[in-house]
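Lecture 7 notes: from sequence to structure.
We start with the chain below.
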Amino acid sequence: MGVLEDVQGVLLGTAEKAIQGDTEAVGWVVVAFLSLSIVVVLAFNQVPSGKGGKVLPPLYAEGLPLIGNALAFAKAPLDMVTRGHNSLGDCFTINMASKRFTFLLSPSAHEVSLLSKDTDVDVKDIYRFTVPVFGPGVVYDADLDERYFQFKMLGSGLRITKLKGYVPHMVNESESFFAKWGNEGEVDLFDELARLILMTASRCLLGPEVREDMFEEAAELIHILDQGMQVLSLFVPNLPTSAHRKRDQARKDLQKLFQKVISKRRETGIVGDDLLQVFMQARRTDGSSCDDFTIVGLLIAAIFGGQHTSSITSTWIGLHLIRDKDLLSRVVEEQQNALKGQDGQLNYEALMQMNLLHRVMKEVLRMYPPLIFLMRQVENERTYKGMSIPKGDYLFMSPAVTGRLPSLWAKPNEFDPDRFAEPRVEDKKARLTFMGFGGGRHSCMGEQFAFLQVKAIWSVLLRDFDLEPVGEMNVPNYEALVVGPKGPTTIRYKRKVPRAT
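Predicted structure tokens for the same chain:
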């Protein structure tokens, strides 16, 4: 009765707010009504398993008919999916209102989604909620040819020669940021790192004009955009809620802000060493260039692509390192040796030698992936183990589930970065085992940028400070769209070489 009472309370509270004119509550009432209507229709029009002689993935269901799956998934999606995996294996379907969610939970099952062509498995419909933020025709809203061109531009801005040039900016931003800390004190690690991540990304991707002259304004507008991407946005991204209206205005304001930089560069001939310049200079095969609206949308997409994930990942790294003195001492020793080989310079080459810190980051992504589900939609029927996955199915992969499977990882609930080192290399036993950055045709293009950014920040932090935990170890907050540590992430710091006061 507890769950039903909770649901009843939420429904009554939402209905009351809707009656009082709360547009967001009205939106949820509309969504609930439409969903219930669809469920009722589907109850009388179920697609039979094995239609046309084909075998579909087995169905997994919990709780009451019609609404049980939705309630269980909303309450604890990972728990439900794990139970489905334990019961039915690496491929099964959960009927969710009008949709079929088919889960792929093994390296071989991942191939169905990650190795298929975009004409067979795509993301456009799934990511339509990003259109108000990035803009029409940008990234996943673009047709495939235009999308590939946009990805090619992004790839050009993240090639090794560009990455080497970004590292000094990452280091300088980190040193300037931590210089503002006192000789000792306490900070919320996530809050601090989130701001620093945005600073480094702004300098490398948006350019010095935004970072030095417009950062506070840009950061506030990006925050408003972020607040406008809510659970409700996944279903009705254009519902006129307060958060959505602020989001739309922030997108217009960012366009004006970045437009000033673009126009000034064109007028003065200034050439930057950042991603913005890559977008401005890129040309399609017919010689045409990107319009300014698309350039701004791509910059926003680039910032959003790494802001949350890098902030969360870098925080988990710290929370583990300061609680494992042996591991911390190994990481610090590795850093010192890498710097010696570069005459004390914290550069690209030094960061690339920090293999243990690299493995620490991979282990964090295995245990605490910020995105617990990766989704695609079937455009043309797929098959797996003799089962037919029909057109229209939503394909779900879960790094959070497969990252903890005993069949893939030794003692999966233990933090052990050495599982990625020789001779164990547990992530290499099968293709698409490690899903920290996607994989196959859909690997994250910002993977190397993220590694360098996080390693640069932690190299400066560990070089200059001794750190200690405050309170108990955090647990993941699975109530958030992007999963990070739950509660405050307070740490205590002390500068290794005190500054004169």
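Points to note: The chain has 20 helices and ten strands. The radius of gyration is 24 Å.
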